[in-house]
Amino acid sequence: MLRFAIRRFLGAIPTLLILIGLAFCLIRLAPGGPFDSEKQLPPDIEANLRQAYHLDEPLYQQFARYIGNLARGDFGPSFQYRDFSVTELIQSGFPVSLRLGGFAMLLALIVGVVAGTIAALRQNSSSDHVVMAVSMTGISIPNFVMAPLMILVFAVHLGWLPAGGLGDGGFRNMLLPVISLALPQIAFISRLTRGSMIEVLRSNYIRTARAQGLSTRAIIFTHALKPALLPVVSYLGPATAAVITGSVVIEQIFGVPGLGRYFVQGALNRDYTLVMGVVVFYGILIIVFNFLVDLIYGFLDPRLKV
Amino acid sequence: MSTDPINTIDEGSSGGRSLWSDAWQVLRRNRAAMVALIILTSMTAMVVIAPLLSPYSFDYTDWDRISVAPSIAEGHPFGTDALGRDLFVRTLYGGRISLMVGLVATLVSLIIGISYGAIAGYLGGRVDQIMMRIVDILYALPFMFLVILLMVFFGRNILLIFVAIGAINWLDMARIVRGQTLSLKTREFIEAARAGGVSTPRIIRRHIVPNLLGVVAIYVTLTIPQVILVESFLSFLGLGVQEPMTSWGALVNEGAREMESSPWTLIFPSLFLAVTLFCFNFIGDGMRDALDPRDRSGQ
Q1: DSSP structure class, residue B262
Q2: Cα-Cα-Cα-Cα dihedral sign, residues A197, A203, A205, A208
Q3: Which residues in chain A have their CB less than 8 angstroms from residue B270's CB?
Q4: Three-class SS of residue B61?
Q5: What tens digit of pLDDT does each residue of B143-178 get?
Q6: Is the Cβ of B32 closer than 8 Å to some Cβ of chain A?
Q7: Looking at the complex, does the CB of residue B237 fall below 8 Å from at least one CB of chain A?
Q8: Do B155 and A263 touch (CB under 8 A)?
Q9: b or e along B185-206 (b: 16 or more beta carbons within 10 Å of the residue's beta carbon)?
Q10: With contacts defined as CB-CB under 8 Å, which chain A residues touch B259?
Q11: CB-CB contact of B215 with B209 (8 Å)
Q12: From B296, which residue of chain A is nearest by alpha-carbon distance?
């Protein structure tokens, strides 16, 4: 167990370094710079600014400096939000994104697993067809199409819910963003659950349980659910990544001040440190999450010795 | 070359033909997939002959008709946008970009994925371990962030956008191809080819790759919509295609900004995008049923 953790930790280092290297090169070599604006800065001032941020050094030196600071947990100052450090921006943006993404994942898991199980139990019935049709819709309609359409219907026409903004972060403000973020995941998870549940229900030990006269409910909850959820658990890693990238768009549409929005704004304004900070932060987050998923997987499937 | 006795041993081509006709039979009975295929074909045709279908060009501004509602009598069946441009033509031109991205980027990911996977799987051993370790490392990267950075980097070059999206999407393909190659390479006809002195690159090209096409075909129909989605995601964020050229994602973005006053600018491009993705997904499902009998029960 400890050896597994250490091995995974060591394995994550090259991933992280490649990620940092790629992101660093791409954003640095992109045309334009953080001090481009409508008003041309006087060359002396720009030179001073570049010097203050060490942008006048050769790239490899800047990279070494960045890695060094990073190792000490320092993401550097933001270029765009002049008085804030990237760490402060992440601290302000991440809780919002986390709440959005967390609720979306929770909703996706609950609805997806329940719908998938129902569809599997009543294979080829009308409820099965409805679940499959809805999930096909969820997969096919991207969330940046779904979100404006939902705003159009529920906020503009019906006036039930606010069209955007976080407000006080209450239920009414979160509802539309969370749903539009969760829909594609609901679709994937219900399809996965259905497929694996059908397979599990056909296996011999389920037939034995039936022959012993156990109720359907007992069979599902005590025998079938755990093995049927294995593919769903292994999908959790990609799902998290998808929710994180999805939140980039969703935050943009609903004007939610989360990390994803910072990232897009930062990339457009060449806010080097902010972009790098978000990439590194999410990179670490995804690696940690994948590790947790592997632990859960080992717990659910004792045949896999971690 | 065709008289080369070694290459006529290839069971794949004779066995493959029956696989494909079998698959076509199954696919033809799948009504959803067939309807999807017909819709997709006619949509592609419309997109290709777009300039013939409307008197307007995609960047022509009609100053007298700004943001008019859809009306066939006015000559704008989908209405016009806030700049007075005909939305029907723009939607079709957007489709050109979106579908082209789907094809080109998928092709790029196919070429990289198949060669990478086939080489890793066939060579095996340490080479395979290193190559797949690299795939594992790349797998853990948050892709969309890198794609966004790639867009910033390449700026306005559409072709590079296509290639970049494809270059990032090959990992799944490489894994699937490698798995198939591992099981293929123990088969007799590969052994026969090796015994006959065929060189390794040639075995991979002529014997391994042709036998992978069934799996690849399923995956291609599932990759195309993914790629279209990525492109429209980027265009939606304003990073993809640049004005006055457009794509479905860019149109949805413009539409979302004006949906309160002119909802048609949102609805039509959304509809085209969603229907296309629907069709590809249905065909992909159908192909999986047709080409991969193991999966037939699950779906």
Answers
A1: -
A2: positive
A3: 141, 145, 148-149
A4: coil
A5: 777 777 777 777 667 777 778 788 778 888 888 888
A6: no
A7: yes
A8: no
A9: beeebbeebeeeebeeeebbeb
A10: 148, 151-152, 156
A11: no
A12: A195
H or E element at residue A262? helix A259-268
Residue closest to A251 by CA, chosen among A139, A186, A176: A176
R_g of chain B computed on alpha carbons: 23
Structure tokens at A231: 């593919």
pLDDT at site B292: 64
Q: CA distances (Å), A107 to each of A180, A235, A297, B9, B19, in order? A: 11, 15, 21, 55, 42
Residue B80 has what DSSP assignment? B
Query: What average pLDDT does this structure show over B208-214?
Result: 81
Alpha carbon distance, N-terminus to C-terminus of chain B = 43
Vertex A137 angle, CA A131 and A143, to 5°: 125
Residues 136-155 of B with CB under 8 A from A: 136-138, 140-146, 148-150, 152-153, 155
Structure tokens at B95: 């489709």
The pTM (predicted TM-score) of the whole model is 0.77
Beta-carbon separation of B274 and A245 below 8 A: no
Contacts of A60 (CB under 8 A, 6+ apart): none
Torsion, CA B127, CA B128, CA B131, CA B136, rounded to 10: -150
B86 secondary structure, DSSP code: B
**Distance (Å, rounded) from C-alpha B164 to C-alpha B240?**
11
d(CA B287, CA B280): 10
Q: How confident is the model at residue A114 (pLDDT cuts 50, 70, 90)?
A: very high
pLDDT in tens, A126-169: 888 888 888 888 888 888 888 888 888 887 777 777 776 666 66
Query: Ranked by mean pLDDT, which of A96-110, A128-142, B83-97, B205-219 comes out on top?
Result: A96-110
d(CA B297, CA A195): 8
Cross-chain residue pair A15–B142, CB shorter than 8 Å: no
Q: Nearest Cα to A27, choosing from B233, B147, B232?
A: B147
The position carrying tokens 């797949």 is B132
Contacts of A145 (CB under 8 A, 6+ apart): B252, B270, B273, B274
CB contact under 8 A, A264 and B148: yes
What residues in A contact B143, CB-CB < 8 Å? 241, 245
Q: Is the CB of B237 less than 8 angstroms away from the CB of A12?
A: no
Give the integer Cα–Cα distance in Å for A85 and A74: 9
User: DSSP character for A85?
Assistant: B
The contacts found for B259-264 with CB under 8 angstroms, 24 or more apart, are B259/A148, B259/A151, B259/A152, B259/A156, B260/A152, B260/A156, B261/B67, B262/B67, B262/B69, B262/B79, B262/B81, B262/B82, B263/A152, B264/B69, B264/B70, B264/B78, B264/B79, B264/B87
Q: CA-to-CA distance for A163 and B166, rounded, in angstroms? A: 35
Structure tokens given for B186: 């123990």
Return the amino acid letter for B85: R
For tokens 């509802």, the residue is A175
Q: What is the DSSP string of A167-189?
A: TTS-HHHHHHHHHHHHHHHHHHH
| Contact yes or no for B150 and A26 at CB 8 A | yes
